[in-house]
Amino acid sequence: MFDSHAHLNHQHFQADRAEVLLRAREAGLTGLVNVGWDVGSSRLAVALAQPEEGIYAAVGIHPHHAADASANDYAALVGLARRQEVVAIGETGLDFFRNLSPRDAQVEAFCRHIELAAEAGLPLIVHDREAHEEIFAILARHAPPGLRIVLHCYSAGPDLLDEAMARGYWIGLSCNVTYPKATGLREVARRVPAERLLLETDCPYLPPQSKRGRRNEPAFLRDALMTISAVRDCPVALVERQTETSARDFFGL
Ligand SMILES: [Zn+2]
Question: What CATH number is given to the structural domain containing 182?
Answer without folding.
Answer: 3.20.20.140
